[in-house]
Amino acid sequence: MSTPTGLPADIHPVPLDIRWTGVSVDLGGRHVVEDLDLFVEGGSWTTIIGPNGAGKTTLLRALTGTVPHRGTVTIGTDDGAVLARRERARRLAVVPQHPVIPPGLGVFDYALLGRSPHQGMRFAASADDRRRTSEVLDRLDLTGFADRFVESLSGGERQRVVVARSLVQDAPVLVLDEPTSFLDLGHQMDVLELIAELRSERSLTVVCTLHDLTVVGQFADKIAVLDGGRLVEHGTPGEVLTPEVIARHWGVEVHTERHDDHSVSVSVRRRGR
């Protein structure tokens, strides 16, 4: 049985909290993240924003265990540092900003890799794994590309395939670093709307970075602003996406509008007008 999203309805993961406590990361002799504390409640959506070089991607890499760090990153009730790679993959589905895709791999087979954490020692895909994969590809308008090599796709098409693999994984936490990169506006909204539907359906915890302030305020429960490796703002879209905050950290003039559903729209004005 499938839900209105076209995805299986028989997955109900327990919502997992995410917490960074005193996290610092040094790269190339530079403090990229400094003594940062941030809590994401299970089942919620937190978007991390900030100017270029603020430390957003590095903070996510500390969560996914791909960069050395000081301090503690807690996934659910466990210190992420003690989780085996396979167990971490069962909890976190990750869309990196610059995914590495093996050459010669077809779209369906690449998306199917998302089922690997749930397979036995032989890593043999079941009929159910294939069904779940087909349903996700269909929902992201990728069925027609199923037999194509991933490297033959455009940047936007490839990005949707990477997102599809993460959704096929059925993890209780989605970690997405600029998931709408290379996508046109229509496909940006398709991807974000699907993530929002899945989050509501399955009580998923969503942690993502986005750079487009015009869409940031439409989806998140909470927004965290990083600048210079530090957490400088944290709150609801209405609390964070204000002309004053945006001018302070991005140096641009904007108009913001709050809506009845607690979302916020941001429009940017040209300098000097």
Oligomer: single chain
Count, helices? 9
| CATH topology title | Rossmann fold
Largest sheet: 6 strands, mixed
Query: Averaged pLDDT, please?
Result: 90
Unreliable spans are: 1-12
- Helix content, binned percent: 25-40%
Major β-sheet strand ordering = 6-7-8-3-9-10
Q: What's the total count of β strands?
A: 12
Task: Please state the CA-atom Rg, rounded to the nearest Å.
Answer: 19 Å
- General shape: globular
Beta-strand percentage range: 25-35%
Order of helices and strands: EEEHEEHEHHHEHEHEEHHEE
Structural class: alpha/beta
Cα distance spanning the termini: 55 Å
Account of the protein in words:
This protein has one domain (18-268): Rossmann fold, CATH 3.40.50.300. The chain has helices at 56-64, 85-91, 107-112, 127-139, 155-168, 185-202, 213-216, 237-240, 243-250; strands at residues 18-27, 30-40, 45-49, 70-75, 78-79, 92-95, 173-177, 205-209, 222-227, 230-235, 254-258, 264-268. The chain has 273 residues and is α/β, with parallel strands linked by helices. It has a six-stranded mixed beta sheet with strand order 6-7-8-3-9-10, sandwiched between helices. The chain has a four-stranded antiparallel beta sheet with strand order 2-1-4-5, covered by helices on one side. The protein has a two-stranded antiparallel sheet with strand order 11-12. Helix 4 crosses helix 5. Mean pLDDT is 90; it is low at 1-12.
SSE blueprint:
Blueprint: E1 18-27, E2 30-40, E3 45-49, H1 56-64, E4 70-75, E5 78-79, H2 85-91, E6 92-95, H3 107-112, H4 127-139, H5 155-168, E7 173-177, H6 185-202, E8 205-209, H7 213-216, E9 222-227, E10 230-235, H8 237-240, H9 243-250, E11 254-258, E12 264-268
Parallel strand pairs: 3-8, 3-9, 6-7, 7-8
Antiparallel strand pairs: 1-2, 1-4, 4-5, 9-10, 11-12
Helix pairs in contact: 4-5
